[in-house]
Q: What sequence folds into this?
């Protein structure tokens, strides 16, 4: 078992090396996320003008939520994994993996994990630069269960993020150009994942429906646990169960698309 | 002028023929753009379901502002985005030679070659958001107000075009400028905010005056809402001319550094 995992450890290490080459791209991207945080701060400060609470949450809680989203984005968000997979299928580079004793999902996931480790650590730099401005607006609850449930939730969110990107990448077996699908899905994911506004602002009915969708677990769920928007540990535990179900569903879907897609795939050239 | 119009019409015809060839692509991208418009409108609706005013702006005033910002962005995407987006790649690969050999100004040829009909179609959707907000606000703009508004939209388009082209022109110096266009989208996020929301002096100087991304949407929206303000109109038109002149200068400076990439 362990020896067979060695190859994924190597692809993880290669992933770290190749992503360190793009450290400046990630760093620049991280600094631009500060501009996004500036927009968030100006917008929500204006919305809170003359009010202490909005949807039951204070301004500092909402700013903390959006800062947490930036951290999660860089630690678990799928950046361009769908394009990379799509390119490998389109250019025929995927053929080499069909002949080797390596699982393509496993290989790609190790590269993704390495990339997010690099980008996640790099985003800490701009956030530290912004800390003097942000510190008065950061407020985190201290209950132990938030880490105990939040960290596994974050890990499962990473699998959901990657699996959705992987599914879109595999669509290249059927459609040559997947960019339209990706951007369309991004809009839906951003709304239902709580990246445009916290999902709880939509009201309890919509929030309840959203909990049954995978997008809820992409960002909102771990962010809500860490930032105090979800305050009942039994609900958090129930959410973790739903998240696990979605992980399994997406893994089965990934495998299904891979098997069906390979039937359509034609490897040309030597 | 007629010469350039003829060239542009030929490019537009080529883009339309291409669109007819890839009809599903056109349908898909039109849907994508429409969904993003809906996302923006949804965000305004959600925030205003918890508050009545933001920085002194009511829900429909804010919708008018966001609609104006989206209209300018859709026009930019429709008329220029694909061509400008390809510029950095063409500079890197040496395919930029193609534009040097064409019968016209290089900046014009390189930035107007492709049209995106899906974005242009969606500028109608952005316009519909503006009209809907104006109807809800019971606005009755005169013909002159509409002409001034249209000229301000044109100036805003000129500013966005200039910021984007001057940003991409960095590729003449650093060659690999891939991803730099993302910075443009970050800046356009500011154009959906009301000017009054910028409380900090540093933010006001940077985003309202130095980089006129806020003025670009706020001045036309304010013209429809409260009438013509000569000071801000003058600033908008001045910024459009200034930014365009700067872009022509930086583009031509960059062009002198271009050394092609052929073997």
A:
């Amino acid at each position: 078992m362990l020896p067979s995992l060695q190859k994924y450890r190597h692809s993880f290490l290669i992933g770290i090396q190749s992503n360190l080459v793009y450290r400046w791209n990630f760093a620049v991207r991280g600094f631009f996320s500060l501009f996004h945080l500036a927009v968030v701060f100006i917008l929500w400060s204006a919305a809170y003008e003359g009010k202490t609470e909005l949807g039951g949450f204070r301004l500092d809680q909402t700013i903390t939520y959006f800062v947490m989203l930036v951290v999660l984005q860089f630690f678990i968000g799928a950046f361009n994994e769908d394009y990379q997979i799509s390119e490998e299928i389109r250019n025929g580079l995927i053929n080499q993996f069909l002949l080797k004793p390596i699982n393509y999902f496993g290989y790609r996931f190790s590269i993704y994990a390495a990339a997010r480790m690099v980008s996640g650590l790099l985003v800490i730099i701009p956030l530290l630069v912004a800390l003097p401005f942000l510190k008065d607006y950061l407020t985190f609850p201290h209950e132990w269960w938030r880490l105990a449930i939040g960290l596994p939730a974050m890990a499962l969110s990473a699998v959901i993020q990657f699996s959705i990107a992987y599914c879109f990448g595999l669509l290249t077996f059927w459609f040559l150009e997947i960019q339209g699908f990706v951007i369309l899905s991004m809009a839906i994911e951003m709304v239902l994942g709580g990246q445009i506004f916290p999902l709880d602002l939509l009201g309890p009915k919509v929030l309840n429906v959203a909990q049954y969708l995978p997008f809820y677990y992409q960002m909102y769920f771990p962010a809500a646990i860490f930032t105090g928007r979800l305050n009942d540990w039994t609900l958090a535990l129930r959410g973790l169960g739903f998240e696990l179900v979605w992980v399994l569903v997406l893994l089965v879907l990934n495998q299904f698309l891979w098997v069906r897609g390979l039937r359509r795939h034609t490897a040309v050239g030597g | 002028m007629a010469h350039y119009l003829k060239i542009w019409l030929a490019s537009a015809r080529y883009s339309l023929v291409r669109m007819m060839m890839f009809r599903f692509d056109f349908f898909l991208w039109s849907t994508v753009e429409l969904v993003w418009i809906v996302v923006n409108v949804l965000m305004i609706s959600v925030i205003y379901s918890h508050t009545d005013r933001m920085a002194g702006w009511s829900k429909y005033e804010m919708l008018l502002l966001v609609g104006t910002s989206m209209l300018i962005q859709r026009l930019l995407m429709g008329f220029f985005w694909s061509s400008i987006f390809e510029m950095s790649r063409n500079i890197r690969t040496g395919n930029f030679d193609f534009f040097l050999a064409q019968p016209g100004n290089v900046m014009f040829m390189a930035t107007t070659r492709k049209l995106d009909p899906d974005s242009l179609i969606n500028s109608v959707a952005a316009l519909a958001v503006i009209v809907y907000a104006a109807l809800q606000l019971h606005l009755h703009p005169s013909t002159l107000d509409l002409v001034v508004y249209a000229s301000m939209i044109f100036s805003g388009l000129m500013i966005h075009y200039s910021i984007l082209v001057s940003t991409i022109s960095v590729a003449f110096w650093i060659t690999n400028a891939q991803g730099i266009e993302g910075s443009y989208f970050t800046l356009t996020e500011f154009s959906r905010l009301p000017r009054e929301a910028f409380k900090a002096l540093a933010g006001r100087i940077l985003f309202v005056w130095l980089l006129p991304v806020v003025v670009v949407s706020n001045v036309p929206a304010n013209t429809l809402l409260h009438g013509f303000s000569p000071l801000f109109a003058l600033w908008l038109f001045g910024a459009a001319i200034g930014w365009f002149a700067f872009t022509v200068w930086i583009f031509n400076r960059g062009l002198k550094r271009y050394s092609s990439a052929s073997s």
